[in-house]
Structure formats: C-alpha cells, structure tokens
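Researcher: I'd like a structural prediction for the single chain below. Treat it as a standalone chain; there are no partners to consider.
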Amino acid sequence: MKWSQTFIPTLKETPSDAEVESHKLMIRSGMIRKLSAGIYSYLPIGTKILNKVITIIREEMDRSGAIELSLPALQPLTLLERSGRIDAFGDDLLSMKDRHGKDVALSPTHEEVITDLVKYEVSSYKQLPLILYQIQTKFRDEARPRFGVLRSKEFLMKDAYSFDTDDDSLNNSYQKMYETYYRIFERCKLDFLAVEADTGAMGGDVSHEFMVPNENGEDVIIKCRSCDYSANREKAEPSPIESDDDVASGEIKEVSTPGMTTIKEVSSFLGVEPGKMVKTLIYAFDDKTVAVLVRGDHDVNEAKLSKVLASGEIALANENTVTGLTNAPVGFAGPIGLKTQIIADQAVTAMKNCIVGGNKADTHITNVNPERDFKIDRSADIRFVTENDRCPKCKSEIDVSNGIELGHVFKLGTRYSDSLGAKFLDKNGKERPIIMGSYGIGVNRILAATIEKSHDSNGIIWPLPLAPYEVLVVPINIKDETIMGTATKVYDELCDAGIDTLIDDRDQRPGFKFKDADLIGIPIRITVGKSFKESGELEIKLRSKDEVYSAKPENILTVIREHMDSLS
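Model: Treating it as a single chain, here is the predicted structure.
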C-alpha cells in the first residue's frame, strides 16, 4: 500500500480528553476517532489491526472445534425478563420500542439469544456437545465511558457458548476454551494472567478472567508471591486472621466522638489504628435488614455478601431505615443491642478490645469484644482482600495490582437453560436441561492493552502479528529517481513475497516521515536515503530496538525475513 493512497490522519498533539496512553496513541496514530462519548469510528489502520486480531481469534476458535455463527444485535426484552437479567443490567441496558410497540434492546450480551436458538434446534444428547461462537458488536450504556476503547458504549466481542449433557462434558468444553484463550493471547504477544473471578451478573459457579497487568487497568489482581494462586478483587479470598488470645479483654466504655462519623475521623481522634475499629453497615435485601461488620481498614465486598445472603438484590439501607434500627444518626451504628441479624467478616471475629459505634449520637464504645458484648449470627468472608493479607493457599505474601480484563470464561450450568427451557433427551429418553458455558473476549481491548504495554515517548511499538503493516519503506527524497526507484523496487519485491508492506511516498521532510513511522509503530522500517547513495546499502531499523542494520537491495528479502523471524 502507498501511504499517499491510504488514509492515516496522524496528529502531533495529544487530545485533551484522552487520559491513558492507549487512548492518546490510538487517536494520534489515526486508528480511531470519537463520534460521541464512548462511541468510536475505526479508521483504516485501526480496522486493519482489528481484523488481524479477529483472524487470530477465528483461527484458534475454529481449531478448537467451535462453530461460527452470527446473532442479531437486537433482542426482545422478553428474553431478558425470562432470564431475570433486566435488573442486573439496569441502566446499562439500551432499550427501546419498535414501531409495533414491542420492547427491544441492543444486545449487551447474547446468552439468552443463543439459548433460545439452541432450544429449538437441539433435542437429543446425540447433538451434544456443541460450541458456537460469533464476533459481534455489543452495547452497554456506560454511565462514565473512559479510557477510550477500554470502557466504551459500543464494543466488539468474541462470545462463545458451549452446550453439554453433564458436568464432565462441561469441564471438557471449559478446558478446551481455556486452552484456546491461552493460544489466542500468546499469538497476540500479550503478557497475560488467568485469575479466578466472580461470576457476577452472568451467573454460574466457576469463572476465570484473562488479565493483562497494567497500572491503568480498572480491575484489581491479587497474586501470591510464592504459589500459583491468583484472583480478581471480587473473587479473592484472604487467609483467615488468627485471634490474639493472649490479650486480656478490657471493660467496655462509652466515649464522646462529637460529629465524627468516619473511621478516619474517629481513629485519629482516639489515637488508634483503623484496624482496631469495626464498621457497622446496615444493608437491605428482600424486604429485610442485616447488620454487616467489617474491620475499619477493610471494605465490604458486595458480591461476596450477596452470595452469603443468597440474594441478588442488596443495597445499603436508606437513612430512615438506619436511624430507625440504631436510634442514632448515620455514622454511629454499632452491633451492641441491635435487633437484626448480624453478619461479621472473619477478621472481626478475631478482634479483641475493638471500637464500635454506640448507637447513640456522637458516641462510640471502646474495648468491645465479639460474643461477649454482642452476638454474631453468621461469620463469613465478606470483604475485599488488601495488600496486608496473606495467600489463602500457602499464607505467603501477596501482590495487589491493576489489570485490564481481556477475556472471561464461565461455567453457567443450567442458569439459562432452566429459565429459557432449553432441554434435551438423554440416553434413557429422559428430558434434562442443557448444561452451558460462556466464553468472551473483548476484541477492541486487545488493541488497547497491547499499546498500554508496548509504547514509548515516540509512539506505539506493535508486535509483528498485530501490526497494521509488517514493513515500512521510507524513501527520503521521492524526487530523486535513484532513491525512489530503489524504494519502489524493494516495496514491490516485499509485496510479491506476501509481506504486508507500506511505502511512504509522500513529499514530506525526512523528520516528518520518521515521526509518523514511530507514531504508528510498524515493526520494521527500511530507509532509502543518503547512506544508500554513499554505500549502496539500505538502512533497517526495528521499532522495538535501538540498533540500526544495513543490507544490500539484492539481499533485502532474505534479511527482512530473518528480522521477521526474530520478532515472531
């Protein structure tokens, strides 16, 4: 491709609304342009890279035995009502009425649609197992789209769904997709990590996320320094904290804490660490209330709490409920004397002589001890892990870091087949629900995650498999017949050899061309310029290295192939 005949509108200045490097560089390199908040157009170079990612995904999914199809972007809301997921998506769901007054939604995901399809097409165990996949646009009305394509309203996903007769067959399908994801991300040259994850709104029992560690990621990864344990923040478990039985129990005492409603304020006023305090939070669920206790330096993990309460609908109680239950303003709730169920995190059960709210305005109580001074109805892991916790498997130190989620695999079980009536007849002629799995990859995110990992102050550094072009030929002076003639001959030879090559035939200054070359990040650059006229050799520069190599024009194909092999 000739640069003059393509469309790569690069920018020298960083867009004012771009927060992270991937967002900045995707715009500056001419990959994307913003249409409105969270909605982007992909320009030719961005489309080309997307298609390279899609090709890798499609090749590996086909290799796994999965079968590609294409599902509609619109779906009737009745499907989401039957699966019970309208509330789970909430305001993220983009819905409307068609001209006939029927409620439809732009698909946020396709579990319901694929289950409804299979329901009518699969009736016997002889048709299973089955894995179907698609590469399709999804829509979610993000309240706060940010970080470019990392959190957008419209995004491209590869989603696959497995259909099995029993748990053993599901395990095989799940493992097959797990291994397929490894091959996909390895071919994309990504440094990734598979971590245990919470199933969230998807439902099911088991799931793993595929994450790329990165400081700009919105997910949090917990990883043991010694063993293979790793999980995302929602799923991660702490090693149980042991109680210090040698500490004598003190006598409880009310203390005045005027106007102090936060852990930080009270701990500072009393001169104690936040870990010596207990937060008492009142939650509402299923027309009931519960008091939830966590240590002052810990936070409630509502995903875990929801599972403990066996309720998908939990929320902090409103002010009137809290006041009515505690007889105190918000900020002074405590467990002593509360007339409601009390669920405490395990760390609270190990505390001695802690400080709690006094259920009275401007009052806290010191030297409080669980069981002696208040009854715990249930103890469970209901908090987020912190960097001060230990690994639940080997009790070694852990690392807490940010990451970008690229893929998620779920064992759904019969979550959707039960609600939507997808059944099959087993070997004995008995009707049973189909057992399902779901497997997603954020295609756009692979581009952004790659850039976050691989860039410098000059621009993007693409790995060879994802690069918009593999080689860039730069003639320094297109008006010099010798230079331009040699550059064109080299370009033609590479193209004829099947190497994806771009020639910068623009009438621009050398510095201008080199800056654009570094910005868009093509892995190999061949310069035909002054040194060629002096020595007869072409200059070869790898975007990922500082070294400059040289080669005679007659050897260029062999040399370029050697460099490509080194980058593969």
